[in-house]
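Dock 5-amino-5-deoxy-1-O-phosphono-D-mannitol; give full complex structure.
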Amino acid sequence: MCGIVGYIGKDNAKDVIIDGLKKLEYRGYDSAGIAVVRNGKLEIKKHVGGIANLENLIGDDPMTSHIGIGHTRWATHGAPSDLNAHPHSNEDETIAIIHNGIIENYQELKQELIEKHNIKFKSETDTEVIAQLIGVIYKEKKDLLESVFAAEEKMRGAYAIVAVAQDEPDKIVAVRKDAPLIVGLGKGSNFIASDIPALLKYVKEIYLIENNETVLATADEVKIFDENRNEIKREVFHVTWDADSAEKEGFEHFMLKEIYEQPKGLSETLNRRLDETGKINLEGITLTKEQIENFSKIYIVACGTAYHAGLVGKYIIEQLVKIPVEVDVASEFRYRNPLVDENTLFIAISQSGETLDTLAALREAKSKGARVLSVVNVVGSSVARESDDVFYTWAGPEIAVASTKAYTTQLMCMYMLALYMGLEKGTITREFYDRFIKDLQGIPAKLETFLKKAPEIEEEAKQLYNREQVFFIGRGLDSAVSYEGSLKLKEISYINSFAIAAGELKHGTIALMEPGTLVIALACQDFLYEKMVSNIQEIKARGAYVMAVAKEGNVSIEAQSDRMIYIPECRDEIAPLISVVPLQLFAYYVAKERGCNIDKPKNLAKSVTVE
Ligand code: M6R
């Protein structure tokens, strides 16, 4: 996610800002930039890549100034590039803007700025639209605060914005609407940032800015205005965290933080692509109805967790779109001479978009004429660049090696793609579609509720952490989720775990069941529930210790299980969005009990760019 730092005060702004941006590097970004007002002139330097690239660009220039803003960008609108990097400016380069989030109506605003004011845009970003909009308003108002107020009335979306103007080098104006923003209170200096770690070296006293509030900061004073432009008082918040825990926002590990970020990621992935009528807007995807009707086969290809998301994708696409789907691990796909042709849709799933096996499989499919659509979290990544269409997940940067929020947002994309294609192809009705979307919209709240049960799962982990092996079983979609639960546990806790479709147990694996063998059984598919209960009975008869995951209300399973975890009631198809979470938490707490390096497990890398 993007990072924001603003400074006004007695020190050299450039040094404070670069230092603050470095503290936000852990969040992931693809370009960085800074703007200062030096000797009455706005100066902007920005560069694609790391902050080191920006520092090289600046070289020995001290950029001496007491006011400035800086940004690390995580691309959303437009690929990572020098031009798309922030800060952005208005046409005569007198106002600079940095921005986190999204301006939903930026295309409409851009059109208006072009048509009415003949503005020539330099970048593909929604952020430049803000800079140009404020620039046009400023010509008339000649006041930065008033111009930002006026611009706010025209913008829709979720954002945090910070602005400086060449003609008012004594003030910074910032706005928060659904994206984090804080103000650091110094002596003779004030700071603006998206996150506390950026400021910890300088201040411990901050104002937490709320939605729809606007900030006017000078070196000696900070004023906060509500949405009606009335000045309001804010209590000072005293930061007690150290830098390390601040990066994790108080969570002990990134993995746990990312587990808790799932409701937000899911809501963003879904809602950002829904129009007012509830229809999915596949902006940036050019799949036509005719193409969808002509696909005779779909391949979903990925690695690890992303492959597990593909297993759910297969199920749901086959059900809703009625096209056969094969799911392959990418490292196998290209060596088995797959039957791909022009009527094949190839879907690559990848959090990083840099996984070499997935990229190679994509190239193989493309060379055989397939249409390539990728589901990717990192904008501008190799997989995204080489695909015909990209469906971005909105998980935000995932830092822990163990993938969690990327998985659930990948699932969300699978549901959305299936619903979109099903509606286009006529294999589902609008009524079915609307109900399904409504159910998906209810998931983030259900997940929030479920996350309150984390202490229960931690308790289970404390009892069970010293097992040498664990089995995960399930049927239908539960079996797909059990593969993911097993991978999570083994990669971070180093316990030998194994997942198998529950009905397959009796064909061999049941030989391993002994008194006390730990089995985690998922029973979240109502239509398979009775069958699952029978499978659990089979292993209980061999003495297995069963921890079952079921939907609230399905209590008959309790009689067969040693431990129960209930997830909120939901339709079967979307249960994986919730049922995976207890497995993520269980893996996390077990690994913690075992003293493992949770965020960076041994032998693993976040992005696997070798074959
Ligand atoms: O970046 P990708 O989604 O392409 O990565 C794929 C796998 O390497 C990744 O999911 C891996 O399995 C994770 N460590 C799982 O937690």
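Observed: The pocket of 5-amino-5-deoxy-1-O-phosphono-D-mannitol is lined by residues 303-306, 350-352, 355, 358, 401-403, 487, 491, 604, 607-608 (CB under 6 Å).
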